[in-house]
Specification:
The complex is a heterodimer of chains A (741) and B (159). Chain A is of the alpha+beta class and 741 residues long. Chain A has three domains: 18-25 and 457-597, 2-Layer Sandwich (Aldehyde Oxidoreductase, domain 4), CATH 3.30.365.10; 32-134 and 192-245 and 249-281, Aldehyde Oxidoreductase, domain 3, CATH 3.90.1170.50; 288-359 and 374-449 and 601-727, 2-Layer Sandwich (Aldehyde Oxidoreductase, domain 4), CATH 3.30.365. Chain A is built from 18 helices and 28 strands. Chain B has helices spanning 23-30, 86-94, 103-116, 122-128, 140-158; strands at 2-8, 11-17, 49-52, 55-58, 71-73. Chain B has a five-stranded mixed β-sheet with strand order 2-1-5-3-4, with helices on both faces. In chain B, a hairpin with a 2-residue loop joins strand 1 (2-8) and strand 2 (11-17). Chain B starts with a strand and ends with a helix. Classes of the chains: A alpha+beta (741), B alpha+beta (159). Chains A and B meet through helix 1 and helix 16 of A and helix 2, helix 3, helix 4 and helix 5 of B.
C-alpha cells in the first residue's frame, strides 16, 4: 500500500543546505552583521523574587558608546504569552519585556545597546538596582500551598487540565490489584549548540524587522505587534535557520528586547545570549511530579488508570497550560484502558521558565507510566512485552474519551519488530560479576499537529520560472530537522523535477504563507502536505496551459522531467515551451498557493529496547545496545528519519542518566554551563539499530506522520527499566543517581 | 591594541587585537570567518574548533596574541579550488549534517585526526570527537562519514 513507486519520496536525501553548512557559509543569526549595528547585553536578576525599589541607569547611559538603556520604565509594559500562535487567541499573558518585579534568578531587568559588546557588558555592570525581596519558591509543592505568596494573580496554580474517560473509581474497584507510584523528572536544557540570538532594526517608516533563531515566526510577529502596537504589515520576522532548537526556540524570549533597543536607537541591534544566559534565562523542559494509580486484572488487563501531574512551569505562563494539555491528550492514544483520568496542574515557581521541549509533555508522563507498567508486569510475573500486547491499541484504536479514531496506530508492530531485532544482539559478559546486565523496554507516543489544541494550518506558495524550475515559499523554519528538504522532495516528486531545479525561501513572515511554527510534530504531517498540494496545483496549471498549446485534452497529459506529453496522441512539448506559452502568449504566471489543515491528530509510536551494563561497585551505567522502532506511516527521507531517531537516543539517554538543570534552594541554577551540564559524547553512544514501521496513515501526506519528537519519548523509560532489571531495584526519579554499594 | 600576524588558511593576515581577545573573536568578528561557531565559551562544546599547527583546539580558549605567527586552519579553508574536501563530501553523503552548527568543529576535529592517522578505528574517531558536542545526530552518521572519508582518501592516495 505504501509503495507507490516514488522517485524521491522515501529515498536517502541529504539535507538541502548541507553544502553551505559543511563549508561554513551557512549564515546563522549571530553570523550576520548589519551596517551600524549595535550590540546588546541584558542585565539579569540576581534574586529569585523581588520588587525593584529603584533602578539607576545614569552611569550606564553616561558611558561613551552606550546608545540606549532599556528598563521597565521606558519600555512598553504590555503583557504577552510567549508561545502565542493565533491573533485572536487568549492565553495567560503575564510576561513583559521588563517588569517592576523580577521572578527568578535570570529574569530580565534591563538591557543596553552599545557600539561594542564590551561596552554593553561594562554598561550593564554600572546599572544600580535596589531590590525589595519577596518570598520565593523553587518547589512547586510549596508554591501551590494555599497560603503561598502569589507569583502572579492570586494563586501559583496556573490552571487545571482535566480529562476523563469512563469511571476510574469503578474501574479501580473492579481491579484485582492496584498500584500507586510517584515519579519525578527534572528540568533539562535543550542543548542546541547555537545559543539564542536575534537582530532587530527599524526602517524610517517604523517598520520593525527581527531576524531571529525562533521556531514560531508568525506567532512572534503577533507578540511584537501587541507589545509595540503595530499592524502586522509593519513587522517582519525572519528566521535564517537555526543551529538546533528542540523547542527551546519556540517561544518569544529575546526578540522584544532587541526590538525595543532598535526602536530606541534607530539602529540595528544584535543580542546573542551566551550558554549560561541561554540556560538560565530562556526556557527549560518542565520538571514534573507524576503520580499514577493503575488497576489491573490478574491476566494483566489494565482496567483503570488515574494520572495526576504537577509541573514546575517556572516564573511565567508561556507553555504552562499547553504542555500539560498536550500531555493529557497523549495518554489516550496508547492503551485500551476504558477508565482513564488525567488531572494536571502547572505551578508557578521562582525558577527559570519552562516551555516547549522535544516531546512536549510526553517524556515526563511516559517515563512514569512505562516504569510503573514494568513494575506491574514483574508483580504479575508476566512478560513485559506480553503485558504491552494485551493492552496496546490496535490499528482500529480509538480515543476512549471521544470514541474517535486515532489514525492507524501501529505500536504493536513496533514492539514485534523490536523483539526481532533484539536477536541480532551479541552476548554481553558481566566480567565475572563485576557488572550487572539488564534489558529494558518502553513504549513512547506523541501526536501529530496542534489539532487537539487549536487550528493547525500551513500555506505554501510555488512560483514557476521560465525554464520550469521553481521556487518554494515556505513558512517553515529550518533547524536541522530537514522539513524544508522534505517539502522539496514532495515538489520534486509531483512536478517531476530534479532537486536542484527547486530552491526555497523560508521562515519569512513577509514572503511566505501563514503557517503554525515548527513544533508540535507538524512539519511532515501538515506542512509537507501543504507543499504537496501546492505542487499539485502547479502541476495542474502547467498541464492546463500545455493542453491549450497542444490542443489536447488535459486529462491525457502527463509530465516528464523535460516535457509535457500526451499518453494518448503522443504529442509532446518541452516544459520551457509551456512556460513560454504561459508568459508570452497567455500573459500569465504560474504562482500557486495551497493550504492544508489538520482534521485529526493521529498518534505516532515508538517501541525501544535498551541493554545496559552497570558497574556494581560504582553504579556507573553504560548503555551498550539499543533498538528503536518507530511507527511513521511512511518514511519520507530515510537519511533524515534515521538521523532524527539517532539524535533522539542521545537526548533521551542524557535525560535518563545525567541531564538536570539543577536549581538550588536559593533559586540559582547550579548547572549553568556545559562544564557542569553533561550531555552524551560520541563514546557514550550505544550500538544502535533503527527501523520503521510503514503502514500508511490515511490523513498524512504520502501516508506519513510525525517522528522526531516521538522518538525521544521511549528512551529514558527503556534505559531506566533496563537498569531496574539489572540491579533489581526501583527507580522513580530522573536522572539516575545510584552510585553503587 | 597589538599588531599580530596570523597565517589563516594558508594566507598571512595582519590584525590589530586587544590582548584579551580570543582567537574565536578575532576569526569571527575581525576576519569575518563565521564558519567558526561559538557554542559555550568554556571549551566544552567544540563548535569553535580550528586547527593550530596540526592540532584541533577550541578557539574560544586561545588568546589571539598567543598564536602570533602560527598556522591556523578553519572550515573555510577546507574546500580547495571549489572542490569539497572528502570529509565535507562524506558528511553530506552520510547525513552527518542536520542543523549544521557543530559541523565546522566536527570537521576540524576529524581533519586533524585524519591528517595524523589516515585509517582510524571507530574508537579512535570517537576519541577524536571527545570534545565535540552534537545535539542532532547522536554522532552515528558523523563517525560513519569520517570512516567513509578516510576510506575514500586512502583510495585516492593509493592510486
Amino acid at each position: 500500500m505504501t509503495d507507490k513507486g516514488y522517485a524521491v519520496i522515501g529515498e536517502r536525501v541529504p539535507i538541502q543546505d548541507a553544502v553551505l553548512k559543511v563549508t561554513g557559509q551557512y549564515k546563522f543569526t549571530d553570523d550576520l552583521k548589519l551596517p551600524g549595528m549595535l550590540y546588546a547585553q541584558v542585565l539579569f536578576s540576581p534574586v529569585p523574587h523581588a520588587r525593584i525599589k529603584s533602578i539607576d541607569t545614569s552611569a550606564a547611559e553616561a558611558l561613551p558608546g552606550v546608545r540606549a538603556v532599556a528598563t521597565y520604565k521606558n519600555s512598553p509594559r504590555v503583557r504577552y504569552n510567549s508561545t502565542t500562535r493565533l491573533y485572536t487567541q487568549k492565553w495567560i499573558e503575564n510576561e513583559c519585556i521588563f517588569d517592576d518585579t523580577v521572578r527568578f534568578i535570570g529574569d530580565r531587568v534591563a538591557a543596553v545597546a552599545a557600539d561594542t559588546l564590551e561596552i554593553a557588558k561594562k554598561a550593564v555592570r554600572l546599572i544600580k538596582v535596589e531590590y525589595e525581596e519577596l518570598p520565593y519558591y523553587t518547589d512547586p509543592l510549596e508554591a501551590m500551598a494555599e497560603d503561598a505568596y502569589p507569583i502572579h494573580g492570586d494563586s501559583n496554580i496556573a490552571g487545571k487540565i482535566y480529562q476523563n474517560a469512563g469511571d476510574v473509581e469503578k474501574g479501580l474497584a473492579e481491579a484485582d490489584y492496584v498500584f500507586e507510584d510517584t515519579y519525578t523528572t527534572p528540568a533539562v536544557h535543550h542543548g542546541a549548540i547555537e545559543t539564542h540570538a536575534a537582530i532587530a532594526y527599524v526602517d524610517p517608516r517604523g517598520k520593525l524587522t527581527v531576524i531571529t533563531a525562533n521556531q514560531n515566526t508568525f506567532g512572534t510577529r503577533i507578540v511584537l505587534a501587541r507589545i509595540f502596537g503595530l499592524p502586522l504589515s509593519r513587522i517582519r520576522v525572519i528566521n535564517p535557520g537555526m543551529g538546533g532548537a528542540f523547542g527551546g526556540k519556540l517561544e518569544v524570549t529575546i526578540e522584544p528586547v532587541v526590538a525595543q533597543l532598535a526602536r530606541m536607537t534607530g539602529r540595528p541591534v544584535k543580542l546573542t545570549y551566551n550558554r549560561k544566559e541561554t540556560m538560565i534565562s530562556t526556557r527549560t523542559r518542565h520538571a514534573a511530579i507524576i503520580t499514577i494509580k493503575t488497576g489491573v486484572k490478574k491476566d494483566g488487563t489494565i482496567v483503570a488508570q488515574d494520572i495526576k501531574v504537577i509541573t514546575n512551569t517556572g516564573a511565567y505562563a508561556g507553555s504552562a497550560m499547553n504542555v500539560v494539555g498536550a500531555m493529557s491528550g497523549k495518554v489516550y492514544k496508547v492503551y485500551k484502558i476504558p477508565n482513564l483520568r488525567f488531572t494536571g496542574y502547572p505551578v508557578y515557581t521562582n525558577t527559570p521558565s519552562a516551555g516547549a521541549m522535544r516531546g512536549y509533555g510526553s517524556p515526563q508522563v511516559f517515563f512514569a507510566q512505562q516504569c510503573q507498567l514494568q513494575k506491574i508486569a514483574k508483580a504479575l510475573n508476566m512478560d513485559f512485552a506480553e503485558l504491552q500486547l494485551k493492552n496496546l491499541v490496535d490499528p482500529d484504536g480509538i480515543d476512549q474519551r471521544t470514541g474517535k479514531s486515532i489514525g492507524n496506530p501501529r505500536p504493536k508492530d513496533c514492539l514485534r519488530r523490536a523483539l526481532e531485532l533484539q536477536r541480532n544482539w551479541q552476548p554481553l559478559s558481566d566480567e565475572g560479576g563485576k557488572y550487572a546486565i539488564g534489558v529494558g523496554m518502553a513504549l513512547g507516543c506523541h501526536g501529530n499537529s496542534t489539532f487537539d489544541a487549536h487550528l493547525d494550518k500551513a500555506s505554501i506558495i510555488i512560483k514557476m520560472n521560465e525554464d520550469s524550475s521553481c521556487i518554494l515559499f515556505s513558512g517553515s523554519h529550518e533547524m536541522g530537522q530537514a522539513t524544508i528538504t522534505a517539502q522539496m522532495q514532495a515538489v520534486a516528486e509531483i512536478l517531476k523535477l530534479p532537486l536542484d531545479m527547486i530552491d526555497v525561501v523560508c521562515g519569512d513572515t513577509d514572503l511566505c504563507g501563514w503557517t503554525v511554527g515548527d513544533f508540535s510534530s507538524r512539519g511532515i504531517y501538515i506542512s509537507l502536505y501543504a507543499a504537496k498540494k501546492a505542487a499539485e496545483a502547479a502541476r495542474a496549471a502547467l498541464l492546463r496551459a500545455a493542453a491549450l498549446l497542444l490542443e489536447e485534452d488535459v486529462n491525457n497529459l502527463d509530465l516528464s522531467e523535460s516535457h509535457v506529453y500526451s499518453r494518448v496522441s503522443g504529442k509532446r512539448v518541452e516544459r520551457y515551451r509551456v512556460m513560454e506559452y504561459v508568459q508570452q502568449v497567455l500573459k500569465e504566471e504560474i504562482i500557486c498557493t495551497a493550504s492544508h489543515h489538520a482534521t485529526r491528530a493521529p498518534g505516532s509510536y515508538g517501541f525501544h529496547i535498551a541493554r545496559v551494563r552497570v558497574e556494581k561497585s560504582t553504579g556507573k551505567v553504560e548503555v551498550t545496545d539499543y533498538i528503536a522502532v518507530q511507527d511513521v506511516g511512511k518514511v519520507i527521507n530515510r537519511l533524515g528519519a534515521e538521523g532524527q531517531v539517532e539524535g533522539a537516543v542521545q537526548m533521551g539517554i542524557g535525560y535518563a542518566l545525567c541531564e538536570k538543570l539543577e536549581v538550588d534552594a536559593e533559586g540559582r541554577v547550579r548547572s549553568s554551563s556545559f562544564r557542569q551540564y553533561k550531555m552524551l559524547r560520541a563514546a557514550n553512544m550505544p550500538k544502535l539499530q533503527v527501523d520503521f514501521v510503514e503502514e500508511y496513515e490515511p490523513t498524512g501526506p504520502f501516508g506519513a506522520k510525525s517522528l522526531a519528537e516521538c522518538a525521544v519519548v521511549a528512551v529514558a523509560p527503556a534505559v531506566i527499566n533496563a537498569i531496574c532489571n539489572a540491579l533489581d531495584i526501583e527507580i522513580k526519579d530522573l536522572p539516575y543517581s545510584y552510585r553503587g554499594q | 591594541m597589538e599588531k599580530i600576524t596570523l597565517r589563516v588558511n594558508s594566507r598571512d593576515v595582519e590584525v590589530l587585537v586587544e590582548p584579551s581577545w580570543t582567537l574565536l573573536y578575532v576569526l569571527r568578528e575581525v576576519l569575518d570567518l563565521t564558519g567558526v561557531k561559538p557554542g559555550c565559551h568554556t571549551g566544552d562544546c567544540g563548535a569553535c574548533k580550528v586547527i593550530i599547527d596540526g592540532e584541533a583546539v577550541n578557539s574560544c580558549l586561545v588568546r589571539a596574541v598567543h598564536v602570533q605567527g602560527k598556522s591556523i586552519e578553519t572550515v573555510e579553508g577546507l574546500a580547495q579550488d571549489g572542490r569539497l574536501h572528502p570529509l565535507q563530501q562524506a558528511f553530506i553523503d552520510c547525513g552527518a549534517v542536520q542543523c549544521g552548527y557543530c559541523t565546522p568543529g566536527m570537521l576540524m576535529s576529524a581533519k586533524s585526526l585524519l591528517d595524523k592517522n589516515p585509517a582510524p578505528t571507530e574508537e579512535e574517531i570517537k576519541e577524536a570527537l571527545g570534545n565535540n558536542y552534537c545535539r542532532c545526530t547522536g554522532y552515528y552518521k558523523i563517525v560513519e562519514a569520517i570512516q567513509l572519508a578516510a576510506a575514500r582518501m586512502r583510495e585516492v592516495g593509493a592510486e
